[in-house]
Specification:
144 residues, alpha+beta, six-stranded antiparallel sheet, 5 helices, 19% strand, signal
């Protein structure tokens, strides 16, 4: 096929994709859904998955009425470092970022971090969700 024909086909495809994506744009809150990151790797991407509406409701429920910890624990080891929950659209009841690790929950909102005791077994629930979302083998390899 001549180069001009290939270029013309590519231009038409780009135009079609651009036109189609304008009609199918979703609201920002959906395109920036709540994402869970299994924090295990250094130097390569961590496994991530998006929470469904039902899973987000369960997350919000497990983040309610938690006992406060006096200090924000640090997480600086290699290997398994728990879970990071990213909430870029700032969905209510979650916080912008949540770290769940070894019995503590650190909720960060607008640069301020607060620590809580994981009294509703959020870390265990997230481990179960990791398995549901195809990360069972990875999780098994890095957790005791």
């Amino acid at each position: 096929m001549p180069p001009k024909s290939i270029a013309l086909i590519l231009i038409i495809l780009v135009f079609c994709v651009a036109c189609g994506s304008a009609d199918n744009q979703q609201p920002t809150s959906i395109s920036q859904s709540v994402t869970v990151e299994l924090d295990i790797y250094s130097g390569q991407p961590n496994p991530t998955w998006m929470l469904t509406t039902q899973e987000r409701s369960e997350l919000v429920k497990r983040l309610q009425k938690l006992p406060t910890l006096s200090a924000v624990p640090s997480v600086d080891n290699l290997g398994y470092r728990g879970f990071l929950i990213h909430n870029p659209s700032n969905e209510s009841g979650i916080g912008t970022e949540v770290r769940v690790y070894q019995g503590s929950i650190i909720i960060t909102d607008q640069g301020n971090s607060r620590a809580y005791k994981d009294s509703h077994a959020l870390e265990q629930w997230l481990k179960e969700q990791a398995s549901v979302h195809g990360q069972a083998d990875v999780l098994k390899a890095v957790t005791p």
